[in-house]
Amino acid sequence: MGRRPCCDRVGLKKGPWTTEEDRKLVNFIFANGHCCWRALPKLAGLLRCGKSCRLRWINYLRPDLKRGLLSEQEEKLVIDLHEQLGNRWSKIASHMPGRTDNEIKNHWNTHIKKKLRKMGIDPLTHEPLLPPTTSTTTDNHHRDRTSQSQDQQEEEEGGGPLDSSVEVNNGAFCTDEVPLIEPHEINLGTCAPSSSSSASSTSSCIINENENSSMITLMEDLGLPAFDDDWHNSMMMSFWDDDNDNFFGSLNLFVNGDSDNDRPNLTASSDPTQCPRMVLDQEPWNLFELS
DNA sequence: AAAAGCAACAACCGCCAGGGG
DNA sequence: CCCCCTGGCGGTTGTTGCTTT
Asked: Where are the domains of chain A?
């Protein structure tokens, strides 16, 4: 019995997304959020399956993505987390705000793996590489099905993730205790963004009431669609500029594409390299009609 | 300058888990 | 309890751009 396809593929487009498709998707999510990925493409006028839309949004269009190469610090964090979690990229990504599992996975496969091997470290076990005389299978049973097959195909090496409940970072957090912010945790009365921990910087953002209302006014000024509370909250967090403790810096770049504008209270981030690549590149955000 | 090889990453595919009926 | 649907995850592939020959 064949698997039912995730969507009706007849007439659906595949392959790279066009800017027009990106615009449609972002505009739709801006206006409506994403209630149901399966229904979204039809409602947004896209000839894509919902899965594809979801991936595109999560991995590329989401405004809170950092983009660009991982910093050395981030790389180290990935290695640490991978040592504890194995190929659980989504878990790893959940500890790295602004980074997607796909991005981390790609970076691991293309950069970190090689780097570790060069350093004489087995990227699977995080142990020093041994001569390939003994093939240990002691840890293989810990790994999930797919990573096992890949690992076996790639290299006959043991090792892998540990129990998902294991603590990392000296017990700073548990892997199943992803620091997600809940709507009720958003305190509009105070603004205490950016703890020292990069892993919690985005999710710990609490919007100041004045900025909150200013932002709403700004959005209205710009003709942006009305948001429901959840969407609004997520957008507030999405545009937080950790490095400058500044919500409007990122939003300004997002909206205006440059810092040269006459809007009060809108200043671009001082260090453009700290801004999301999609903002810096003016693509695809600059293509969207915001009115 | 052209071709071949390589690296990076966006996107796809198949499977799984959880929730609802 | 079972089945179906949906969202999510991880592995893999395809495409594109860059570097080397």
From this structure: 19-61, 72-168, 183-287
Radius of gyration of the CA atoms of chain A, in A: 21
Q: Mind listing the pLDDT tens digit for each residue in A94-153?
A: 888 888 888 888 888 888 888 888 888 888 788 887 665 443 333 333 333 333 333 444
Residue A220's Cβ-count burial label (10 Å; 0-12, 13-18, 19+) is exposed
> Chain B positions under 7 Å from a protein CB?
7-16
User: What pLDDT digit, counting tens, does each position of A2-51 carry?
Assistant: 334 454 455 788 888 888 888 888 888 888 887 788 888 888 888 888 88
Chain A residues 52-71 within 7 Å (CB) of strand B? 52, 55-56, 59-60, 69
What is the CATH code of the structural domain delimited by A72-168?
1.10.10.60
Type and span of the H or E element at A58 = none
Spacing of A69 CA from C3 C1' in Å:
44
